[in-house]
Every structure is written in structure tokens, then in C-alpha cells.
Amino acid sequence: MTRIDTTFARLRAEGKKAFVAYIMAGDPDVETSLAVMQGMPGAGVDIIELGMPFTDPMADGPTVQLAGQRALEGGQTLAKTLDMVRAFREGDSETPIVMMGYYNPIYSRGVDVFLAEAKAAGIDGLIVVDLPPEEDDELCLPAQAAGLNFIRLATPTTDAKRLPKVLQNTSGFVYYVSITGITGAAAPQPADVAPDVARIKAATDLPVIVGFGITTPDAARGIAGIADGCVVGSAIVKEIGAGKPVAEVLAGIAALAAGAHAA
Amino acid sequence: MPDDLINSYMTGPDEQGRFGMFGGRFVSETLMPLILDLEARYEFAKTDPDFWAEMDWLWKHYVGRPSPLYYAERLTRHLGGAKIYMKRDELNHTGAHKINNVLGQIILARRMGKTRIIAETGAGQHGVATATVCAKFGLKCVVYMGAHDVERQAPNVFRMRLLGAEVVPVTSGRGTLKDAMNDALRDWVTNVRDTFYCIGTVAGPHPYPAMVRDFQSIIGKEVRWQLAEQEGEGRLPDTVIAAIGGGSNAMGLFYPFLDDPSVNIIGVEAGGKGVDDRMQHCASLTGGRPGVLHGNRTYLLQDPDGQILEGFSISAGLDYPGIGPEHAWLHDTKRAQYVSITDAEALEAFQLSCALEGIIPALEPSHALAHVMKIAPTLPADHIIVMNMCGRGDKDIFTVAKHLGFDMKI
């Protein structure tokens, strides 16, 4: 059982949907992003997705791209991101943290070294956008062996034939990408997404969380209502990018969380 | 007991799309089903006589193939050593080897029922080739090009627009070729159902590196029979040389010779201002290390934290921080040798080709020619070098004029 499994068990017992929130580590600097991170559980965030900046984020829209650039310009590295996680864990030993990003910085560090460091720092799961099931030997299987969840993305192009392959080595939860597109794109309609979520849920016991394009508390409620929860990323990152004070960013996150939890 | 198949360099990639440890399919899930579909369609087309009949007809009547294999007599005499041949792919329609591959991919896209073609381009040669073939077949074409390249390659931008393509200047990241590729991938992920991504080089997720190589291999196949025609039955080149950005013209020349051990294979990377720790070059093999970008594992220019660095070269067509995975493998297995040539050396070769052979080369093959200038004088007269003159220099005259201090306004 990872913290992710425990969290979903608790939410299920409470009859609540999960609210997952994304920020970019080191955006615009370590101090600010750590302060936001530390405030997230209090704002109602059930699972924190912590972005690892990369120079070439092929699956991300402009908002997350710029956040990564700000972080890198501020000198963010993988080591500093893990330092942030350690600092967070000093005050919070329960909120699950999922690191999200691209493979090259991990590959560059060395998979085994990275996994040992990530586990020790208090990371619970990984979402690595450019590692489909076809490349499971690279990181997915070693991560599971190291006791980390490997959370896979399922998408509208993942058809019935392919779904079992996508689900096979997934753990923690399934992240359903509600649109064909990049992060921060147009919002999906809950009614359009519901059949796909139902299709995935029929094939797995894992919780299904829906993300991409959710920007308002109402949308969070609508989408969480047809799944086990929802993810908001770009809408939060945009506030941080606009230079809003941490308290204001957290107030926005709290409103989104309230939306998801009202589902 | 030797087994030709096991000892062959020509059987890759494997089922995972790997050349040794390089290659693969490092893409998001949204694209994965499409890439598998593309692989299946390509596997079928590869052995479909109708597909190749269409290619051959267009290569002959639309592109102007076969391109000549030309004995550069004055250059040979000037350098005073090996006998130098140029494979004249700069004479193709649109002025470079790029169209060899574009035709193959567009025919495949049509067979897959795709109605919208996207492409990335650096110098603009692949963009122009894609826009050209899209115009011919009446397909919608969108070309992503780094904002910086849009500015320095204005004539090619205008050509693409004349041909009906939409050129999207890319300002994300640093606005270079790799960022153009990122934005093309973002477009593809968004419009995956009707859109075909026509990649311009032997990189990207499997099956692109193998597919682009196969389409470009027409270059090396022609060299085989053309050289035999001029030098006698069974005569193979002793050395084949080509410039490498992503490496498509080089793979096209090299591939048909991989299993001929007597053929020495040399790839020439762009050394920019010199391959040292200033990193002002694009020599991924000589100055980079293995990593994962744009769907494949290969040698990349990157910092210690795995962040990708910008390439630097006088030639916009070589300005990419990676290299095709098959080159990475040929490098590690030592079947091919990879060297680098600086901007200054390429400029010298550019001028020599103009002066001695009346051929204005693109800056990309000028790099290959510069290496020929280095080695030819050390080789005997019966040593045959074939270099790939993969593009013509019209697009580069402004850049060269600037470097030579020539005022184009006069």
C-alpha cells in the first residue's frame, strides 16, 4: 500500500471524490513553489502532482511550458526537486506526491539511482508522459519493484483492443486524458467523457481520475462527478505564473477542491 | 559458421523499433495507437509492388531521379589524391534529397485516409518539399518553423506560402528546430484523427527512422549501379561521405553499403565554432551522450541534468541537438566513423566547389566536402570517394555573403 492507495481507501470510505492538483517544482522559485505545495493539503488537495521541469515538454500547452522555463531559468534541477519533496515531508507524512514529467532527466540521472532517491525523499508515484506500455522495461517495471506507483495515461485514442495493455502495469490510479490534445486545452463536457470513463472502470478496479482542460470549480465538480476525481494543473500554474501571492493561489486551489469534493 | 543474417548491419530495427539500445517509441499514449497503425501500414506498403510503382514513377517524372553520379575531375586533380564522385541529389526537384522521403510519406498518408499534413522544418528544405508534394496532391499542409529560422530563411518561407502551405512561426522554447518539432508533436496529439506527421529526418518514434531511411536509400542504391556503370562491374566505392544533422541523406547513402566491409563510411557532423565545452556546435555523436527526446533514444546535446541544449551551426539544416538512432548505433558499433567540421572549414569547401566544379552547394553538404578535402590528398589515386551533394546552395547565399563580407545590395 502506498500513500496513494491509502488516500483512495479513505476517500471511498468518506464517499468523496479525489482532487488532484498540479504545480511545477521550482516555479518561479523553490521558495514559492514549496510554500504552495505546503499549503495544498490544507486547501483540500488529496494528491499533489509535482511537475519536473523539462526543456522540451511535448505534451504540454503554453502555460505549463512557460512554468518549466521559469523553473529552469531559476536553476531548478532534479536534485532540487527532490530536496523540495524532502522539505515538504518534514511537515506532512501523509499526502501522496506524484512526480510528473518526461523521461530524459530521469534517464540522465540513472533509473536505479533516481528511484532510490525518489522513494527515500517520499515520492509515491510517477507519471512519465513519454513512456507508453511499449517501453515498460525502462522505468515502469523498475519503479513498481522499488515500491512506487506508475500511473499511466489513458486517452480517447486508447481503444478497447489496446486498453488492457495500458492497464496491465498501471498502479495507484489511471489518469484519463479527457481530450486529444495538450495540457491547458479546451474543457471537455462531462457527458462526453462519461462513457470513456465507464469503459475504463469496467476494465479495472483502479480509481479513474480525469484531467486536461479543467479550469473552474464547476467544471471540477462536473468531471469529478463522472469519475473518481479530477486533476487541475494549468489553471493553477497560470495563477502562479501571473505572480499572485501564495495565499491567493491557495484560495483558488481551495475553491477548485471544494468543487471536486461537492461532486 | 558465419550466418549472414546475424552478421548483417541491415536487419534493424528490431520489433521494439530499436537499433541496439537506440530508437524506440517514447511518445505519449495519445499518439501510440497511431504510430502502431502507421507501422502496420508501412510494413504492408514496403512489400506492395503498387506502392513502389507509384514511388518509382514519381521519382522519375516528378523528382527527376536518378540523380547523376558525377566525377568531380578538377576537384580530384586539385586535391591530388583519391578520385572524387558527387552524388547530385541537389538536382532533385525542390533542390535537395528531402523530397525522396516526403513522397513516400505522403503516398502512405493518402493510403491511410489522412487529409492534413504537418511537418517541422529548420532551413526550410523539408518544409518546401512537403508543401510541394501537398500542393501536387491537394492536401492541406501546415509547417512548423522556429521563429528565428523564419527570419533567416525568408525565401523558403515565401516558397512554402506560394505552394499553399501555412507556415507557423514557433516561439515556444527558444524558437528553434527542436521547438518546431515539439509544436508539430503538440499539433499531432491534438489533431491525431485526420493528421499525418511527415517527419523530415531519420529520427522520431519507430517506424519513422526506418521508414525515412528506406525512402532515402534510393540514393545509395543508385550509387551502386551508377558507379559500376562508370568504373566497371562490381566496383564499390572505397569511402562514402555525407553530412549529418538528423542524418537522413547520410542514412540514404550509407544503408545499401552497410554490409560491404570494404566500404569505409564517414558521417560529418556540424562542428560550429568547434567541438569543445563551449558547446557551440551540433555534433551530437562527438559532443553529446545518450538520452531520450522526440520519441527516440539517441545521442543528444544535453546538460548534466538531462535538459536539452541548443545546437549551433552556420547551417540551419544541421542545427538539431540530436541525431537519428541508427547513426547512434552505427557509431557505437564502429561500423561508421563520425567526424566534425567547423563553420569555417565548411565555408572554404563551399567556395572550392563553386570555383572548381561550378556547383554551388548547400552549407550542409559543404561539411561533407570539407572532410573530403581533408582526406582525399592522403589517399591513393585508385581510392574512390562518393560524397553526397544532398542540397543546392541557393538558400544559403545570403548567409555565405554575410560571412564573406559581401554586400548583397550592390
TrEMBL record, chain A:
CDD domains, per database record: Tryptophan_synthase_alpha (cd04724)
Record's GO cellular component terms: cytosol
UniProt pathway annotation: Amino-acid biosynthesis; L-tryptophan biosynthesis; L-tryptophan from chorismate: step 5/5
E.C. designation(s): 4.2.1.20
UniProt cross-references to InterPro entries, sorted A to Z: Aldolase_TIM, RibuloseP-bd_barrel, Trp_synthase_alpha_AS, Trp_synthase_suA
Residues annotated as catalytic: E49 (proton acceptor), D60 (proton acceptor)
EC class name: lyase
GO molecular function terms noted in the UniProt entry: tryptophan synthase activity
Catalytic activity: (1S,2R)-1-C-(indol-3-yl)glycerol 3-phosphate + L-serine = D-glyceraldehyde 3-phosphate + L-tryptophan + H2O
Alphabetical keyword list: Amino-acid biosynthesis, Aromatic amino acid biosynthesis, Lyase, Tryptophan biosynthesis
Any Pfam family: Trp_syntA
Assembly behavior: Tetramer of two alpha and two beta chains.
Chain's role: The alpha subunit is responsible for the aldol cleavage of indoleglycerol phosphate to indole and glyceraldehyde 3-phosphate.
Family: Belongs to the TrpA family.
NCBIfam families xrefs: trpA
Protein's UniProt name: Tryptophan synthase alpha chain
Record organism: Fertoeibacter niger
Gene this chain is encoded by: trpA
From TrEMBL, chain B:
InterPro entries cross-referenced by the UniProt entry: Trp_synth_b_CS, Trp_synth_beta, Trp_synth_beta/beta-like, TrpB-like_PALP, TrpB-like_PALP_sf
Organism: Fertoeibacter niger
Lineage top rank: taxon: Bacteria
Chain's role: The beta subunit is responsible for the synthesis of L-tryptophan from indole and L-serine.
Taxonomic lineage from the root: Bacteria, Pseudomonadati, Pseudomonadota, Alphaproteobacteria, Rhodobacterales
Protein name in UniProt: Tryptophan synthase beta chain
Presence of the UniProt keyword Lyase in the record: yes
Keywords: Amino-acid biosynthesis, Aromatic amino acid biosynthesis, Lyase, Pyridoxal phosphate, Tryptophan biosynthesis
Pfam family, one: PALP
Gene field: trpB
